[in-house]
Amino acid sequence: MGKILIFAGTVEGRRLAEFLDSQKKECYVCVATEYGESLLPEGEYICSSSKRLSAKEMKELMNKEGIDYVVDATHPFAVEVSENIRFACETLEKKYIRLLRDEDSIEEKNDCILVGSVGEAVDYLMETDGNILVTTGSKELKEYTRIPQFKKRVTARVLSTPEVVMECSKFGFEGKNLICMQGPFDEELNYCLLKQTKASYLVTKESGKAGGLEEKLLAAKRAGVKVILIGRPKEQQGYSFEQVKLYLCKEEKIKWKQHITFVGIGMGTKQTMTLEAWNACEMADVLIGAERMLQTVKELRKPKFSSYKIEEIKQFISEHLEYGNIVILVSGDIGFYSGTKKWMEQLSDYPISRINGISSVVYFCGKLGIPWEKTALISLHGREQNIIHAVKNNETVFALVGEDNGIPALCKELIRCGLESVVLHVGENLSYSNERIVTGTPKELVTEEFERLSVVVIENRIPEQVVVTHGIRDEKFLRDKVPMTKSEIRSISLSKLELTREATVYDIGAGTGSVSIELSMQAFNGMVYAVEKKEEAVNLIQLNKNYFGVSNLQIIEGEAPDALKELPAPTHVFIGGSSGNLKEILASVLKKNPSVRIVMNAITLETVMEAVECVKEFSLVEVDIASVAVSKSKEVGQYHMMMAQNPVYIISCRGGGSKENGTLS
Description:
alpha/beta, Rossmann fold, Cobalt-precorrin-4 Transmethylase, domain 1, seven-stranded mixed β-sheet, 23 helices, elongated, disordered C terminus
């Protein structure tokens, strides 16, 4: 196993030492000062030194410790030190690796005066008036004494160590001319110091992101201060932190797990991100997400991969082992229709962390002043959900809308189902400068145009008290002369079906649609397909669908089994009329789902005999046959006479096969 020596004058060097320690890999870390040593992470596998070394001493250390790899992570301006390290490595034939700082392109550079050295900066400042805040360190502070009246004009900000303070005092920098502080410094603190010193000029080095350059530039711009920027020496060659880490892992056969964090970023602006989410992005090696989300954190200037497709994301992660700390950005909150669950299943081989964000329902209901603890939550974004049922049964419904013309289409459906009086609050571009919230009834908003990605809160101030049991009275249905399954038979048949809320149901031989309507109401999160061959009956089903205001009912005109070919596999099937095709119908539905639940109604003995034969032939299970004779009262003068209806045989059963994970077997 090779030994690694790190000259760690930068954040990147300290991060590398911390990483190697976490992998239980010994490393020797050299820094130039005790202060630098105090910044090093404490670790069982880290050995450190704070002594400045000459080229000769570097060679002695490499030989003594048996070093194989030398990582030069010194500051870009430590040119002489880098040359000594390189010379020592070449002499001893050690592997030299230059770790470069993250040099980012910052637009504010265009407003700076670029110079090549501290001396050039001083030459420029000697021809100016006004106070100067110097943040270039103590090493070259003597240069600034050439500025006329420097004690009045120049304030130096340096590290807060006794050695540095003594060095500065030798050159006349003390008292109000000397600020001793330890970074990092954010934009606000830089701004306050510029205002306090009444600076007209700020002198800084092009130290990149790790050196806090961006924060200085932003503060100077706010304060109206001119920046004198000392350009960093051009690196001949070198590698990024991720590249160095990957190289050492391969050479030393360090096996390490990439870690993935799913981060909910809120509405889309930095202001709606939690501090925990922002910190996670700051610590990330790479950020992954849709371009809109990456824009929210662009100021962090992190490596990024723009994608929302899990296959592409998975491939990217597997191909880029240099990224250990991976953050995947999710809109809103990770637990609210975000797709995070599916993604986590696909990435289950990796250690995963989760950070919640502010969801759109929390943000939007807060804007509207509407409590959301009893609000029904729906997503119409890439999925079918029965929003009409939700609106009928709840005072408030929140929905994500992600389709073109989504809001107008929703308004049309509300109008069709008799919900014209509800109030809609539509929100788009939430949290952005062009945020828009529009309120109105379905008729008022049906012609409006909205963004594709919108949200809506629907208020139904008088929700229906919906009957939760089946058995709608026969006279409620529009019937004409079309045969209809009577209420009592309908109730028993629906009970035998053992419906679930998410059921996919065929109603074959639907007639007036009375069974289909009740199926839709019971399986309100599923879908019902009313299959009917007669045009008159099809028209009646449509009328009853509109009258009862159900949205999860599709009418299929045609004769079974041919009409069933393009339909999704059913979980439940009701057969009220087969037109002599019972065997073929059962074969078709059992092929789609071998464990489908089936209920058949029969009046004639011939149909009963055929059903019993099919039960045997298809090896159906859980078979139950009931003969139901219903008598209903009829007023005759002052009396009530019982009138018998035709007896009906109700055959219920289930396919004997299995359906696992959506795959039929």
